TrEMBL record, chain A:
Protein name according to UniProt: ABC transporter permease
Stored SUPFAM superfamilies: MetI-like
GO BP field: transmembrane transport
InterPro entries: MetI-like (IPR000515), MetI-like_sf (IPR035906)
Boundaries of every ABC transmembrane type-1 domain copy: 66-272
Family: Belongs to the binding-protein-dependent transport system permease family. CysTW subfamily.
Presence of keyword rRNA processing: no
TrEMBL record, chain B:
Protein name, per record: ABC transporter permease
Keywords: Cell inner membrane, Cell membrane, Membrane, Transmembrane, Transmembrane helix, Transport
UniProt signal peptide: none
Transmembrane spans: 12-36, 71-91, 103-123, 135-159, 179-202, 209-229, 235-255
Organism: Prosthecodimorpha hirschii
Gene Ontology BP term (one): transmembrane transport
Protein origin, superkingdom: Bacteria
Automatic annotation (TrEMBL), chain C:
Assigned keywords, A-Z: ATP-binding, Nucleotide-binding, Transport
SUPFAM superfamilies: MOP-like, P-loop containing nucleoside triphosphate hydrolases
Name under which the protein is recorded: Fe3+/spermidine/putrescine ABC transporter ATP-binding protein
Compartmental location: Cell inner membrane
Species of provenance: Prosthecodimorpha hirschii
SMART domains: AAA
Topology class, membrane: Peripheral membrane protein
Gene Ontology CC terms: ATP-binding cassette (ABC) transporter complex
Length: 283, 265, 369
């Protein structure tokens, strides 16, 4: 067995890199979030205030953005679950020869550049985009309908981007269900729908939870897609943080919002892992 | 079903699944079509086909510089992350350190933290330390966001290893380093390569951290596309995107052939 | 080829002493087994010899070299693991060549010695296979070839046969013993299987809770166990709750239930103590009452213990009886499947002849091995 000294020695480089370039910078954000922003000159010296956090909790605009972010998280998780389940089911339980090509079709868009995928949706959804052009050519509409810079565009884009994560989680969960259990239910006279509802679906619940949490956290943290498909006006927390840092230079407010976002993400992951543990305890 | 044993997905489910899979590929296909279209807005069918946009991109020094920067960051951060991540995972595997679960949680933390938050935290940190706009700063930022993938895949690969293998090598005369190089490393290599591939793609993909940290004359390819789109759609964006799509597809196919990648996703 | 010596060798984890001051010398070319229940410290000793666990106290010498602080790669040992630990990414040839390459053996010499080692385990035709293409028994042979190819000074085995099925295990025991004789390597073999240890070894060390109970040739271990633990661990024992009636030298008399009183060869307890009484099944001789009507037939004058056959079970070469000797006291007795005692029906009244050498008394809290 390796001596503790050696183990610490080869663990140390990564530990130090993460401490220096992750832990310390994030912690240094904390004092900033209690600072006071002076337009034009940055952060006021020696002033400590809760104002930034109070504003997040009370200001109507901030609250709207936060609720919108959480709503998107919920909506995208749900849409991914509904769209992803059939795909996962087909991969896990369909013909064996389909499995690898299907997985590659799921993984390929996932590996593809986020900016490129969002750009693809712009080409499709813009006012003079493919969808509007097609609908007008077919005579179904006379003026372009607004598919971007609103909820529709952001929902479609985010669902497309995080759906593969959900599918992979569900595939793992469905594969873990012993086929015997499904077969047993079927031989006991259950119809296929009934087998699905009474056996497959409940037994894949841990995967559904894990996939939904993952998609939810990724969605509320997303910057690129909401920015590209939501534009400068339809804002979520991440894009608001971006604007406060890059355009308004209001770092105190931006860092408070950053902590709010980080706490949401971490809190949800923590809560779900507790829930998953309780489920595992019941089984 | 009449025989009661067939619980495969039915025709409706299969059709729905295929529709979703098509939905997943649509933006990809659209981008590729737009890259060859003569008009700046894509129509079906396209008004005409051209390779001009590719020529424009490959002659544009801004794009070339951005591609170069992206590749430097992706290769550099993947290399550093792989070395540091595999070493850390190996230490955790070979030795039951006190609090090893907490250590693993710490190593995986950058994955949990929203990327924007990492971005703004590093923005402030680099502004204070003078690292903003330096290649070193960017490289370290990319190491932070890519290393969890390496640690995760290396830990998973190591967990499947018989601990007696290295002991056998040691007793047969191998030094600790030889035992790692000749026995452990070849056995965890497929998993590590899969992790490195994800790390590479993550680095190449990243906007939310990079965009806060680049200097005045620096940019990466995704950041450039991201900011070009804010200016308005240009088919040269589609052309450079198509190049990325092709590169990704080639890497994915090679990885699948060589390492049966689908086992690791 | 070398001697292997332990000098007051000990290992503790925190306050737990897993190996207590073991001192012994294994002679050149000797085959020694360490035998004991799991957790007795035998594997820890083997791993200390290999350099995989650092001793807390004492010294390990190979020949006259003190190797106590040497890393495993500089000890010149061969080790066969319970899991075989074959390198799955290397062919049979490369597995066997691994140790040779580390010793800078190359070229024709390397080929020759790999072939030689594989021939010794009769696997010459499998040289190009990968480990996963071999059966368990074949993998076992590759592991042995890999261990002996570099001509180690001492060969170590860590329960190498426990993953094989019963028949293959017996074949391998004989083959291993022959191989060890041919090569003449000093061998330390760790096992929990007494049959394995007794069959193969020149000497056996029986261990319990980190303490060497007895280190002696197999015959002595079986017929003259040094402690009650050894007596209870070796052979096929009955274990009955009883009491020491009288001490007399090393032995004395024990009582089981209200009426049965027996002479015992070894008693590890004071007079009057509650005891776990060990009676070897295979040493009990039984005869139907009446069949031994004339007392002059009996070679000695030990009075038989009366009992009733409850159950007979036949297993080929042996027959086992469950005999009730008193209310609530049942014994298992075993005989060969030929002869008068081999066919006693349940209900038969029998007389049991229990020789004192087959009776031992040990503290009742002693856990069953």
């Amino acid at each position: 067995m390796m001596p503790v000294r050696h183990a610490l020695l080869i663990l140390a480089p990564l530990g130090l890199v993460l401490a220096a370039f992750f832990l310390v910078p994030v912690l240094m954000l904390l004092p900033t979030s209690f600072g006071s922003y002076v337009p034009g000159s940055g952060i006021a010296k020696g002033v400590w205030t809760l104002e930034n956090y109070l504003r997040i909790a009370t200001d109507d605009y901030y609250r709207e953005v936060i609720w919108r972010t959480l709503g998107l998280g919920l909506g995208v998780s749900l849409a991914s679950l509904i769209l992803g389940y059939p795909v996962a089911w087909l991969i896990a339980r369909g013909p064996a020869s389909w499995r690898v090509p299907l997985i590659l079709l799921v993984v390929f868009p996932m590996l593809l550049n986020l900016v490129v995928r969002s750009f693809g949706w712009i080409v499709l959804l813009a006012n003079r985009g493919l969808v509007n052009n097609l609908l007008m050519q077919l005579g179904l509409i006379t003026a372009p309908i607004k598919l971007m810079f609103n909820l529709t565009g952001v929902m479609i884009g985010l669902t497309h981007i995080y759906l593969p994560f959900m599918v992979l989680m569900l595939v793992a969960a469905i594969r873990n269900i012993p086929r015997d259990v499904e077969a047993a239910a079927a031989t006991l006279g259950s119809s296929r729908t009934h087998v699905f509802l009474s056996v497959t679906l409940p037994l894949s619940a841990p995967g559904i939870l894990a996939g939904s949490i993952l998609v939810f956290v990724l969605t509320i943290s997303a910057l690129v897609t909401p920015r590209m498909l939501g534009g400068p006006t339809y804002k979520v927390m991440a894009t608001l943080i971006y604007d406060e840092y890059v355009q308004l230079l209001d770092w105190p407010s931006g860092s408070a919002l950053s902590f709010a976002l980080a706490l949401m993400a971490i809190g949800i992951i923590w809560a779900s892992s507790r829930l998953a543990r309780r489920w595992a305890g019941m089984a | 079903m009449s025989d009661g044993t067939d619980h495969r997905p039915g025709r409706a489910v299969t059709a729905a699944a295929i529709a979703v899979l098509v939905f997943l590929q649509i933006p990809v296909l659209v981008v590729m079509l737009a890259a060859f279209s003569t008009t700046s807005y894509l129509t079906i069918p396209p008004k005409g086909l051209t390779l001009a946009w590719f020529g424009k991109v490959l002659a544009d020094p801004t794009y070339l510089a951005a591609i170069r920067m992206s590749l430097i960051l992706a290769f550099g951060s993947t290399l550093v992350s792989t070395v540091l991540g595999v070493a850390a995972a190996y230490a955790l595997f070979r030795r039951t350190l006190p609090g090893s679960e907490a250590i693993i949680a710490f190593l995986m933390a950058p994955l949990v933290m929203p990327a924007v938050v990492v971005g703004v935290a590093l923005l402030q940190f680099f502004s204070l330390t003078g690292l903003r706009g330096t290649l070193f700063g960017l490289l370290m930022a990319h190491v932070v966001i890519t290393v969890p993938y390496i640690v995760r895949s290396a830990l998973a690969s190591l967990a499947g290893l018989d601990g007696a293998l290295e002991e056998a090598a040691r007793v047969l005369g191998a030094t600790g380093l030889e035992a790692f190089r000749l026995v452990t490393l070849p056995l965890i290599l497929p998993g590590v390569v899969a992790g490195a591939l994800f790390a590479f793609i993550t680095s190449l993909d990243n906007v939310p951290v990079t965009i806060f940290l680049i200097g005045a004359n620096q940019t990466t390819l995704p950041v450039l596309i991201f900011s070009s789109v804010e200016m308005g759609i240009d088919p040269s964006v589609a052309a450079v995107s198509t190049l990325l799509i092709l590169a990704t597809a080639i890497v994915l196919i090679l990885a699948e052939r060589r390492f049966r990648l689908h086992r690791f996703v | 080829m070398s001697t292997l010596t332990f000098e007051a060798l000990g290992k503790s984890y925190g306050d737990t002493e897993v190996v207590r001051d073991i001192s012994l010398t294994i002679r050149e070319g000797e085959f020694v087994s360490l035998l004991g229940p799991s957790g007795c410290g035998k594997t820890t000793i083997l791993r200390m010899v290999a350099g995989l666990v650092e001793p807390s106290r004492g010294r390990i010498l190979i020949g006259s070299d003190d190797v106590t602080r040497l890393p495993p790669n500089r000890r010149g040992l061969g080790l066969v693991f319970q899991s075989y630990a074959l390198f799955p990414h290397l062919s049979v040839t490369e597995n066997v060549a691994f140790g040779l390459r580390r010793r800078k053996v190359a070229g024709a010499e390397l080929d020759r010695r790999v072939r030689e080692a594989l021939a010794m385990v009769r696997l010459a035709t499998f040289a190009d296979r990968m480990p996963r293409q071999l059966s368990g028994g074949q993998q076992q042979r590759v592991a042995i070839a890999r261990a002996i190819a570099p001509r180690p000074r001492v060969l170590l085995f860590d329960e190498p046969l426990s993953n094989l099925d019963a028949q293959l295990r017996e074949e391998m025991q004989i083959e291993l013993k022959r191989l060890q004789r041919d090569v003449g390597i000093t061998t330390l073999f760790v096992t929990h299987d007494q049959g394995e240890a007794l069959t193969m070894s020149d000497r056996v060390g029986v261990m319990a809770r980190g303490v060497m109970q007895q280190f002696a040739p197999p015959e002595d271990i079986y017929h003259r166990p040094a402690t009650a633990f050894v007596a209870g661990f070796i052979g096929r024992p009955n274990r009955l709750a009883g009491r020491v009636v009288r001490r007399d030298g090393a032995g004395g008399r024990v009582r089981i239930g209200d009426r049965v009183e027996l002479a015992a060869a070894a008693i590890d307890l004071p007079d009057g103590a509650a005891a776990s009484v060990i009676i070897r099944q295979e040493a009990i001789r039984l005869a139907a009452v009446g069949a031994t009507a004339s007392p002059s037939d009996a070679p000695d004058r030990v009075p038989g213990v009366p009992g009733t056959v409850l159950l007979r079970s036949f297993s080929g070469a042996r027959v086992q009886y469950v005999v009730r000797v008193a209310e609530g006291v049942e014994l298992v007795a075993e005989t060969g499947s030929q002869g008068a005692a081999a066919d006693l029906a349940p209900g038969t009244a029998v007389s049991l002849n229990i020789p004192p050498e087959a009776v031992f008394a040990m503290p009742p809290e002693e856990p069953a091995p």
